[in-house]
Amino acid sequence: xxxxxxxxxxxxxxxxxxxxxxxxxxxxxxxxxxxxxxxxxxxxxxxxxxxxxxxxxxxxxxxxxxxxxxxxxxxxxxxxxxxxxxxxxxxxxxxxxxxxxxxxxxxxxxxxxxxxxxxxxxxxxxxxxxxxxxxxxxxxxxxxxxxxxxxxxxxxxxxxxxxxxxxxxxxxxxxxxxxxxxxxxxxxxxxxxxxxxxxxxxxxxxxxxxxxxxxxxxxxxxxxxxxxxxxxxxxxxxxxxxxxxxxxxxxxxxxxxxxxxxxxxxxxxxxxxxxxxxxxxxxxxxxxxxxxxxxxxxxxxxxxxxxxxxxxxxxxxxxxxxxxxxxxxxxxxxxxxxxxxxxxxxxxxx
Length: 350
What we know:
Layout: H1 2-22, H2 24-43, E1 49-57, H3 67-73, H4 93-97, H5 100-104, E2 110-112, E3 119-121, H6 122-129, H7 134-146, H8 166-178, E4 179-183, E5 190-196, H9 199-256, H10 263-300, E6 304-308, H11 321-340, H12 342-349
Helix pairs in contact: 2-11, 9-10
């Protein structure tokens, strides 16, 4: 029984091979044509590079009693500290980077290509120097023919995130596709990846996005502390001016009435001395508040450890040209094989 089944399988394989051999001409025509067309097609797609930077919050102490406060000072909320809740959690950093405000802030970043032929802003680079496949260029040209004219009124050369022009909106969408931010929810490692057609511009953008994200988080975390510090500094400066003014008045009054023994003069001198002492106490108290505000500002300033710095990639990340050509060739081979042996394959299935 087993010999009969093996014999049937051999017959089936031989039948399939014979059927495929009958369509040898189709293979000889289709496979070389597919290979050539795949090569021509994939060669039109510009190569791109990827550069990645990784950051982590710098936490030196893991005491259970102060872990919530420490994590909060670095922009993280791990619970147990509702009084100092943070509105921007690490999970929101990708949305932050994809916002119009953040992307528009990248327009004026200076970029330079590796060969030195391009030296301009990132916006101008994407608008005038970014390469597209020929079919994408054709589609964009046709879309421009039928597109309605842009009626957005531009009052300033500086881009307005609230009111973007059509071209600016397209550039922002392209930037969103090129710049990605991922957060590891287990250890809150921040990964910033930038994709671009030039390796040097790719690394430059990754480093710039990293710096801008750090600056934004730092400004957000320290905004209130900075306002408090400025407020106490102003109060301290005003108190110091008042103290110095009354001190000069008291000194001048004492010098002018040093030999006077009238009680009214002595009482006025005592009143001025008491007022001077009160102003001095106020000034010293405000100085202590200034020092506390400086300490609070330092405590709430987030620190980051760079786990992986952005570097210029040596090899392109894509497209995988050999794999694409091989895949298309194998796909056509399978299609022809299934088509040529369909009667045998589907006949046996029935």
